[in-house]
UniProtKB/TrEMBL annotation, chains A, B:
Keywords: DNA-binding, Transcription, Transcription regulation. Residues 64-253 form the IclR-ED domain. Signal peptide: none annotated. The keyword Transcription regulation applies. Residues 8-70 form the HTH iclR-type domain. GO terms for molecular function: DNA binding; DNA-binding transcription factor activity. This is Helix-turn-helix domain-containing protein. Pfam families: HTH_IclR, IclR_C. Transmembrane segments: none annotated. The keyword Lipid biosynthesis does not apply. GO terms for biological process: negative regulation of DNA-templated transcription. It comes from Sneathiella litorea.
DNA sequence: CCCAATAATTCCGTTTATCGGAATTTTTTA
DNA sequence: TAAAAAATTCCGATAAACGGAATTATTGGG
């Protein structure tokens, strides 16, 4: 009999094993992986052997401990999100320090927005609406909304259609998004007024390279008291725009470099 | 009959499909992937379906084009090499600009050293000994040698034994490595005098965090004329040491952050 | 707007690679 | 040095992956 919780197919199994490893920065031995993955020892072993073959995992010959391998890292370098997140690190840190609030970085994937990085500022009341890895429909949340508003009319329409039910879960409709789009056009940033959490607001701006590619959105979230118009205009927005531009410039430089 | 060139096992097949995708920054459609991977359409399709299930690939619903997915990116963020490479970006750029020569970043993996990043300086004669992704036995090349020399005596011995034949391909022996180790102890950096390419030299230093973890090596390579003792002592070495320390400090800060 | 051509997806009988329990070997610990 | 634990290999049973063919969806003229 096959394990009820077991994913179907070797690829799903491999993914689970890799998951376990990615949560173990210092690696894990076979028994540990068996325990975490819930697969039989034999299966786990064979999956690991296959993954080792393609350099997705590496086994330290002396300790027999398994770690994520070089191939994975190499491939990841090609997966843009990683780069965006890594490159944004310093800028986000600057924003978090400057504003003392929480800074989010999101990237678009199809009709969704994925939070790929987060920096927490010094202010004691924190607004942790999004975790790293969280996925939301485009248009829900300040960063996600900034991404949505940077799409073409046709794309926005598609997103609304595709995500209709998902958007409804967050109380968003095509109309509400259209109204936020207007706001974005006029003010140059997207806002999120207590949509998900009451008493909390956020504003977001898109990150667009010189070649016109929409790569990410930067957003800052805080309790309403810290999101008055004056503070937004004098502190938050200039900061976001500055870092968004920097990030775009650096990504652009890397793009050029790649073509050499 | 199964394809002669086909890798064995679903995991190897999945890896090949991911390889194809990672070489296609703008994604690829099914036929393209079929062509590149040499698998049957059905197999390719099914592999992609499995990969999609675990978010390793993402298929744009409107264009049906496949790309590397969010999960891969998320996982990669945990694979240290990526971070090291991304974090080192600026420092390497500074070194490349300052020295005008070529800057290499290598990380250790078992008994090998993997080049994970490279920055080319302005000087017209370039010494591109290593590509991103290249793997060498520990001890071959300045960066790799710096890693080797930062190991314990027992580890060095193991490396020599394990890599014996591989080292021989590069004309290196236990004795030659021992002699370079002496040099490293005395001078605080590793050197590579035309070992691989005649007329070219390089020097490297290790990057070690405050907690004592050996994470990488930074190296600079140039033609011999630009690697005279004076230039090394006045320009190259101080630069390398400074950036190595900075990098170590940043990695250390991130390590602490992780434990929160 | 319809039809042809191309691409994507599903179906299905066959075969093979994967499965897990048990046996074996290696490594660690007492 | 023996006992215990962990890693690895073996093997028969079987589920899962295979690919060719059929089906469905999409695209690109005319």
């Amino acid at each position: 009999m096959t394990n009820l919780l077991a994913p179907k197919g070797s690829i799903a199994r491999a993914a689970r094993v890799l998951d376990v490893l990615s949560l173990a920065p210092d690696g894990a031995d076979l028994t540990e992986i068996v325990a975490q993955s819930k697969f039989s020892k034999t299966t786990t072993f064979r999956v690991l052997a296959s993954l080792r073959e393609v350099n997705y995992v590496f086994q330290d010959p002396s300790t027999r401990i398994y770690r994520l391998g070089s191939k994975l890292a190499e491939m990841a370098r090609n997966a843009e999100q990683v780069n965006v997140s890594a490159i944004a690190e310093r800028g986000m840190a600057r924003l978090a320090e400057m504003s003392e609030d929480t800074v989010f970085l999101s990237v678009p994937e199809g009709a969704s927005s994925i939070c790929v990085n987060r920096k927490v500022g010094a202010f004691p009341i924190r607004t942790l609406t999004l975790d790293k890895g969280d996925r939301r429909p485009l248009g829900v949340g300040a960063g996600s909304l900034a991404l949505f508003c940077s799409l073409s009319e046709a794309q926005r329409a598609t997103v609304c259609r595709v995500n209709k039910n998902w958007l409804a879960e967050y109380g968003a409709t095509e109309e509400s998004l259209a109204s936020e789009y207007e706001f974005f056009q006029v003010n140059g940033y997207a806002r999120n007024r207590g949509g998900v959490v009451r008493g909390m607001s956020a504003i977001g701006v898109p990150v667009i390279t010189a070649s016109g590619r929409l790569v990410a959105a930067l957003a800052i979230g805080a309790i309403d008291e810290r999101m008055k118009q004056e503070r937004i205009e004098e502190l938050i927005l200039p900061g976001l725009k500055r870092e968004a531009r920097r990030l775009a410039d650096r990504l652009n430089a890397m793009e050029k470099e790649q073509n050499k």
